[in-house]
Known about the structure:
Blueprint: H1 11-18, H2 27-66, H3 72-115, H4 121-168, H5 172-211
Amino acid sequence: MKFRNRSLAFFAMLLLGTVSFLSGCATTGMDRSVKTSNSIRDVDNEIRKMSVQIDVTAASLDALVKGSKDDLKKSFSKYTKEVDKLEHEGKRVIKRLDEMKAHSKEYFAEWEKQGDKFTNAEIRELSDQRRSKLAEIYARVPAAGVGIKGSYNAYLTDLKEIRKYLSNDLTPAGIEGVTPVANKSTQNLNSLKSSFQPVLVALDEIKIELYSPKK
Length: 215
């Protein structure tokens, strides 16, 4: 979708706009909205970086098991480095998802507290409706992210065990023996990439809610 390619640099401004009607809102509430917008941007960026690294790592494994056997050490070294990078990226994605969950929970709790202080019934209702709608949309991101954790751990386990096996038998025969396992790991690879889609869809829903003009 076209929204995925848009920069999230304006998220802080947009999120602050959603609570502009909370006149007199405490600075801490504004700070929380900035943290929430930053966590959304971070989740989006880290998932895209991880997606790229998945492809690079898969290519290094493919080159190791199907490429030239003249320099297995070099191919194995490349594969080892890419697995380490993927592990690093995966940990960052999971961390960002956890941060988004925490920040958004804090943000909407503060919003609810501020909204209850309105004496104008119409504004109080508007505040409650807007907060409930956005909170429900935001909650879909960490909820969808649960699938990423399981798929990531399954695929990373495959890659690390292949690496461990070949570290003891980096020979053409060793490569031949582990190739069926490497081929089967593609299933976990596809599951991991598929697990990104619900999160990206949820992020798109947030962008649509904030960017699209109301009719």
